Amino acid sequence: MAYPPAAQSSPPRQPSVKVILAAADVSRVVDRIAHQILEKTQGAAETVLLGIPTRGVPLARRLAARISTFEDVTVPVGVLDITLYRDDLRRHATRAVGPTELPPGGIDGKRVILVDDVLFSGRTVRAALDALSDVGRPASVQLAVLVDRGHRELPIRADYVGKNIPTALAESVKVTLAETDGADEVKLYGGAPA
Amino acid sequence: MIRHLLSGADLDAATATQILDTAAEMATVAGREVKKLPALRGRTVVNLFYEDSTRTRISFEAAAKRLSADVINFSAKGSSVTKGESLKDTALTLQAMGADAVVVRHPASGAPHRLANWVDGSVVNAGDGTHEHPTQALLDAYTMRSRLGRLAGLHVAIVGDVLHSRVARSNVLLLSTLGAKVTLVGPPTLIPVDISGALAPGTDVSYDLDAVLPGVDVVMMLRVQRERMNDSYFPSAREYARRYGLDGPRMRRLPGHAIVMHPGPMNRGMEITPEVADSPRSTIVEQVANGVSVRMAVLYLLLGGNNR
């Protein structure tokens, strides 16, 4: 989820749209992150993938599926809802709370990899770190994102990045996934004409 | 999102369902090591109680604290109210202290509605006179949904002193919004005339508990308020218990899946026997736990965002 979504909800009139990643690219990028996780964690033992709703959740499931295809290890997947930990709750109408689902083995003592679609200001990840410390005590926490579009407002970086997209603040990045939106695509709105 | 919760009728089906869904997420917090969420940090919730209450006040207090709100408890005893301060002046005092929400229980029906006109914050009705108690209705609906899996199409019997019961009134309104059918059961002296038409169309009235029991999914027993016993609404406590009390043999006449509810505090041996109250069908203890989750959901939805 690009953060904050409300600010991006009305793209400028007649926006220029540029496709950054097509469906095939998205699947290649997911494969690469899965390989990188296996490499960096030396086999993804004692590892849990936690998706941040909305689109981090299907991404986490895909990564787990790819990891088990590549190396025959099962990585538990969970959902971490961060709504109640956001720092902008009061700036918007009340947000609906979603479910947090931890895998049966829990997260205590595990390596937790947070998964989200877009890394932008870093505030979503900060909220996720707060939420995480309330539901358990992982041995370590890493971050995997499909797209890093820059403009960080907090000292946060990703361990696994699918694609770095240099953007202007006025632009917006929209990720769609087959599970949530019908098709895989990453688009840049409001950018300079290609 | 609504600003105040004063009546079961304030909630349409979508909002009520949102509260129940949010409550289900709030309930998971109770099972965690850190039973605390930061959502209402820096917000102040005042519990303004002009009537004695333990479970409702503690439930609201626990709910507000689990959401990290600051809680100020105000009970009429030992306050300026005994010196004659009016509700309005008390409200303005709370307003000046920056209360974001006022949870009010008052012996006068309609007091929370008046209060809502005097304060800027949200007002939650925690029981006013013989009028309404909407969060009790919400926690009852939540309990039914979690035990029976649905609300639409359920048949609920509400048994006892319907006349003086704010729990019954709020339940009739909310349950009919959510698609359940309600039958009110009690002695004719304790069922208001034309309540079915006045509150929610489709609500039935019966004076015969035994005839209703085999067809219901939920039987909700109301407390017989002891202060009423001398008011000749019924001849004697023993006669009331025999005709409208829920005992073992009556419980066995219920369908296999049916549940027994009671908002508490119970008069064991009066409207409900210990055998029934302690049976697996009874949800009485669950209702208390669910009360905290539902009140967390209500406070979050009223105060969590910028709804002004």
TrEMBL record, chain A:
GO molecular function, a single term? uracil phosphoribosyltransferase activity
The UniProt entry, under InterPro entries, shows:
PRTase-like (IPR029057), PRTase_dom (IPR000836), PyrR (IPR023050), PyrR_bifunctional (IPR050137)
Keyword Glycosyltransferase appears in the UniProt entry: yes
Indicate which residues form the motif PRPP-binding: 112-124
Kindly indicate whether the keyword Protein biosynthesis belongs to this entry: no
| Gene3D superfamilies registered for this protein in UniProt | 3.40.50.2020
Q: Which HAMAP family match?
A: PyrR
Q: What is this protein called?
A: Bifunctional protein PyrR
Q: Which species is the source of this protein?
A: Micromonospora sicca
TrEMBL record, chain B:
What residues bind carbamoyl phosphate, as annotated? R55, T56, R105, H133, Q136, G264, P265
* Entry-linked PANTHER family: ASPARTATE CARBAMOYLTRANSFERASE (PTHR45753:SF6), ORNITHINE CARBAMOYLTRANSFERASE, MITOCHONDRIAL (PTHR45753)
- Which terms does the UniProt entry file under GO BP? 'de novo' pyrimidine nucleobase biosynthetic process; 'de novo' UMP biosynthetic process; amino acid metabolic process
Q: Which reaction does it catalyse?
A: carbamoyl phosphate + L-aspartate = N-carbamoyl-L-aspartate + phosphate + H(+)
Q: How is the quaternary structure described?
A: Heterododecamer (2C3:3R2) of six catalytic PyrB chains organized as two trimers (C3), and six regulatory PyrI chains organized as three dimers (R2).
Q: Name one Pfam family in it.
A: OTCace
The pathway entry for this protein reads as:
Pyrimidine metabolism; UMP biosynthesis via de novo pathway; (S)-dihydroorotate from bicarbonate: step 2/3
Task: Give the protein's recorded name.
Answer: Aspartate carbamoyltransferase
Q: Which intervals hold domain Aspartate/ornithine carbamoyltransferase carbamoyl-P binding?
A: 3-145
Q: Which gene encodes it?
A: pyrB
User: Which residues of this UniProt protein bind L-aspartate?
Assistant: K83, R166, R223
Species name: Micromonospora sicca
Q: Which UniProt keywords apply?
A: Pyrimidine biosynthesis, Transferase
